[in-house]
Specification:
With about 240 residues, the chain is α/β, with parallel strands linked by helices. It has helices spanning about 15-25, 35-45, 60-70, 95-125, 135-140, 145-165, 185, 190-200, 210-220, and strands at about 5, 30-35, 50-55, 75-80, 125-130, 170-175, 230-235. Bound molecules: NADPH dihydro-nicotinamide-adenine-dinucleotide phosphate. The site of NADPH dihydro-nicotinamide-adenine-dinucleotide phosphate has 30 residues, from helix 1, strand 2 and helix 7. It comes from Falsiroseomonas bella.
């Protein structure tokens, strides 16, 4: 039977490409989203992938949503923590609220979602978790103290949890995208974006499909020996 894969923020942007690539790889995919009903409806109509609306930053909502999805679709065996936001500002203007929102949505969500699926995956002795980090979590980026901290946190979270899950064949990895052509990046001013592209050796922005390919690779049944690693997909922008 096809394994159930849940992709948070899976109905648009990078998440949509991940959902569709996992579906093409034979997974029974479920996507979640925060509030963009129109995008969710259009996505479901186009792909047949069901979408569930809940806030990944809300612990109780994540517990309830996972219970509902597992009752309606089946046990979640692949989890992709992709949902994320930016609230950019230089430190001088970075408010406590902007800090909290980004930490809760980008990093707190990984705890909330992993916590909700963890016991089930370990009991069944199979699980594939991928957390979506960022090149800006690896290298830092001015104006993104909150985002870089959250994404950097994801990389430590991934390595620690990978050690806990390994014995039960539950792998935990991260993918760190570079700049990818989605709405998140289209919000960056044009002149700033031109400077960013100039720093990417491959000479273009990433495509959502470039990231999805890495997620399919890390979540394959055969990928058991890869855990606690970060796959950088950034056109050579940052290497280490
Ligand atoms: P988009 O802004 O295009 O999409 C974000 C998705 O996350 C949407 O589906 C959105 O739902 C969902 N989402 C946001 N907040 C919440 C929430 N509180 N609860 C549930 N779902 C939520 O983002 P991208 O596709 O560009 O980015 C996807 C991931 O990749 C993010 O983690 C991002 O940080 C990371 N990334 C992106 C890069 C890029 O260049 N684009 C580079 C590096 C990393 P809704 O549609 O309902 O708002």
């Amino acid at each position: 039977m096809a394994r159930v894969a849940l992709v948070t923020g899976g109905q648009r942007g990078i998440g949509a490409a991940i959902s569709e690539a996992l579906q093409a790889a034979g997974r029974k995919v479920v996507a979640s989203y925060a509030g963009n009903d129109a995008a969710a409806q259009a996505f479901t109509e186009r792909t047949g992938i069901p979408c569930y609306k809940f806030d990944v930053g809300d612990f109780a909502a994540c517990q309830a949503a996972v219970q509902k999805i597992e009752a309606e679709i089946g046990p979640i065996e692949v989890l992709v923590n992709n949902a994320g936001i930016t609230r950019d500002a230089m430190m001088k203007r970075l408010t406590r609220d902007m800090w909290d929102q980004v930490i809760d949505t980008n990093l707190g969500s990984c705890y909330n979602m992993c916590k909700a699926v963890w016991d089930g995956m370990n009991a069944r002795k199979f699980g594939r978790i991928v957390n979506i980090g960022s090149v800006n979590g690896q290298a830092g980026q001015m104006g993104q103290v909150n985002y870089a901290a959250a994404k950097s946190g994801i990389h430590g979270f991934t390595k620690a949890l990978a050690q806990e899950g390994a014995r039960n064949h539950v792998t935990v990895n991260a993918v760190a995208p570079g700049y990818v052509d989605t709405e998140m990046v289209r919000a960056v001013p044009e002149d700033v974006l031109a400077k960013i592209v100039a720093r990417i050796p491959i000479g273009r922005l990433g495509k959502a499909e470039d990231i999805a390919r890495g997620v399919v690779f890390l979540t394959a049944d055969e990928a058991e020996f890869i855990t606690g690693s970060t796959l950088s997909i950034n056109g050579g922008q940052h290497m280490y």
